[in-house]
Amino acid sequence: MPELMMAMSGGVDSSAALLLLKEQYQITGATMLLYTPKDREGCGSFREAEDAKAVAQKLGLPHVVLDFREEFRRRVMEPFSRDYFRGETPNPCIECNRYLKFGALLQEAENRGIPYLATGHYVRKGYDEATGRYYLYKAADESKDQSYVLYHLSQHQLAHAVFPLGEYTKPQIRAMAEQAGLITAKKKDSQDICFVPDGDYVGFLRWFSHETCPSGQFVDRQGKVLGEHPGIIYYTVGQRKGLGVTFGKPMYVLGKDAAGHTVTLGENQELFSRRVLVNRLSWMYLPGAEGPVRLFAKLRYNMKEQPCTLIPRGEDQVELQFDAPQRAAAPGQSAVFYLGDKVAGGGIIVSALPEE
């Protein structure tokens, strides 16, 4: 049987993936240590590594724990902090998949002479003979589809990746794990960023970063001062609650200017835009775009993709022109492009653009 390394987070998904693959591959389970304060649970912790090891032992499979804490700090935590202070809203799970799971972990597998890496992502892999390219397409259970966080995978990474869960629903996976008597069968899904488990972004940034975030002014789109704020890191585009100032009507964060320390506020309708600029592109099913392309795109993980036209705007930059205005395109988040169920590519949102 061919050899395979299984990325085991300590959750039910990767545990069930072992059940699906153990008759097809010679498997080594592997858990990455990423962020490990005392008593901390969640992906990348000692506690999750212990659960993953217990599952591997029950199934009679070898298991290794790999210390990637420095790589995780350099590749994920530091960029997250830097981008937040720049006024962006980064997605660290995407960077973790890019640089840790399909970067450092895949490299570790190759160093050990193991040709395949499997993960518990809900996504399916395909190959197009006409283009000679591997691609991803959405999971059969669209409510669990995770193709959004993997749009950046290279052809080399895709060639060595195995995704056994793409045809299954979450209830099926839990039932499978429970029937096998795995300790992870009833574990809750992780909802938070592993290094911000309580959702306190500001608390993390204050602890982690040596930067200070000066106070500044709330302004409207005309530059009129509306009040004072304690720092741009307290706010995200689209936010309404927790502004700390009342205006007699609902007001929302439209944007942030790190250089000027300003947070622009406006009414809900001002959050909508048909045009979004995207750079730092990664192409998957499409090798690139030389002219306008009709496709679908989503600007956030929990969003249904929307019809639009993709227009190249110079090197490594495209504009998405949506058929209908989209709400709260946040700089730093990812925009992912789809052709039907196939992932065409994606990139990082620069800004929403005004109507021409």
Description:
By secondary structure, the chain is an alpha/beta fold. The chain has three domains: 3-179, 3-Layer(aba) Sandwich (Rossmann fold), CATH 3.40.50; 212-266, SH3 type barrels, CATH 2.30.30; 272-353, Translation factors (Elongation Factor Tu (Ef-tu), domain 3). The protein has seven helices and 17 strands. The chain has a six-stranded antiparallel barrel with strand order 12-15-14-13-16-17. Strands 3-2-1-4-7 form a five-stranded parallel sheet, with helices on both faces. A hairpin with a 2-residue loop joins strand 16 (334-339) and strand 17. Helix 1 (12-21) packs across helix 6 (170-179) and helix 3 runs antiparallel to helix 4. The longest helix is centred in the N-terminal third of the chain and has 20 residues, at 92-111. 40% of the residues are buried.
Protein topology:
Elements: E1 3-7, H1 12-21, E2 26-33, H2 46-58, E3 63-67, H3 69-85, H4 92-111, E4 116-118, E5 123-128, E6 133-138, H5 155-159, E7 161-162, H6 170-179, H7 201-208, E8 216-219, E9 225-229, E10 252-257, E11 262-266, E12 272-283, E13 293-298, E14 306-312, E15 317-327, E16 334-339, E17 342-353
Parallel strand pairs: 1-2, 1-4, 2-3, 4-7, 8-11
Antiparallel strand pairs: 5-6, 8-9, 10-11, 12-15, 12-17, 13-14, 13-16, 14-15, 16-17
Helix pairs in contact: 1-6, 3-4
